[in-house]
Amino acid sequence: MMTSGFITALRRDLLLAARHKSEWLTALFFFVMVTNLLPLGVGPDAALLRKIAPGVLWIGALLSTLLGLQRLFASDYADGTLEQMALSPTSLSWLVAGKMFTHWLVCGLPVVLMAPLLGVQFDLPSRSLGLLTLSLLLGTPILSAVGSVGAALTLGVRSSGALLSLLILPLYIPALIFGAGAVEADLAGISPQGHLSLLGALLLVSVFFSPWITAVALRIALE
Amino acid sequence: MLAVSQLTCQRGSRRLFSDVSFCLDAGQWIQIQGSNGAGKTTLLRLLAGLGLPHAGTVTWNGAPVRETREAWHQDLLYIGHQVAIKDELSPVENLIFGLGLEGISGSRQGVIEALHRFGLKGREDLPARFLSAGQRRRVLLCRLLLRPAQVWILDEPYTALDVHATEFLSAVIEGHLDQGGSAILTSHQTLGLRPGMFLVL
Known about the structure:
The complex is a heterodimer of chains A (223) and B (201).
Chain A: H1 2-19, H2 21-42, H3 46-69, H4 71-79, H5 81-86, H6 92-120, H7 126-153, H8 160-168, H9 173-187, H10 193-222
Chain B: E1 2-11, E2 14-24, E3 29-33, H1 40-48, E4 55-60, E5 63-64, H2 69-75, E6 76-79, H3 91-101, H4 108-117, H5 133-141, H6 143-146, E7 151-155, H7 163-178, E8 182-186, E9 197-200
Parallel strand pairs in B: 3-8, 3-9, 6-7, 7-8
Antiparallel strand pairs in B: 1-2, 1-4, 4-5
Helix pairs in contact in B: 3-4
């Protein structure tokens, strides 16, 4: 019964995303633009581009995830669906987990898939491209999980978008450091193992706790 | 039995209502009246367990509703002001997902039947943004036919409904009371239902 709520929330949000493509395509396009503009601004210095590539792609991923987060609960809150979810006999945490997972599928996964393509223009070697994709694959679910807590906390607040960025971006710092750090370490000839393990640990902790914390924050927002 | 005792709600320094008490047994219904801003919706949300009262208790079968949330929400059907309907989805999809979020797997056939009974024949697969305000309310009210619950809390259920739908809704509520259900509703109109309790805020 609990996982059925998860699956319904997942299917519902996926269908909504399929009917409303502009929302997540904007986030993906933003990611592509930001990571494209930087090499143009910095100039064709291959050594420098290789050096900044992991950081740039990771920051692009952070910012584009943030775009989708504002809408994660806002429309359900505005039309009363969230109230119905809070009154559901199934666990709100599982429903929230379903919404969070959809956010990752719609905003995180496309970024992961685009990253190796975009990495080419930074002259990254193929080994680093693979590692970058792996670090984003481990890292983007952290962004969705931590971000959903922030989205729930800023629900119903005026100019919630700006507040959400202020609240969430500092919490993204560990993921950014270990994610970008894994690729940088590899480029410098050090094993990326440690970075990836820490990223994996962050992933487990955030995915485990955030649906529960988000549900509590949503109940407070509805009071 | 739903028992409300000495419920008080305060918003900032303003007291919305105080010492609201009533008991609702199987087959009984209560109409809550009051001027705009008297706190009718707030009271309903407190009963549903969405808000925290300033003082007083709400108990369902002897247990406080906020402590036995799952049991209470299993027996409760709450229909609020907001329609909880997504413009991008059709009425059928809206209802099936709505039921799914409550852990009930609704069949397409059952949902279509309910929509027909509420006079929405031919609108089943139309995106909800093409529906009028009254039609959206009807889609929402279909949940009364689809989701079994002992207690109905309905916030202004008659809003935006035409004469035909109003009569049908009254019949649905009567049927629910006949089967031993109970209902709490707010409305400014005099309702054509069997004699019930009144509460004026």
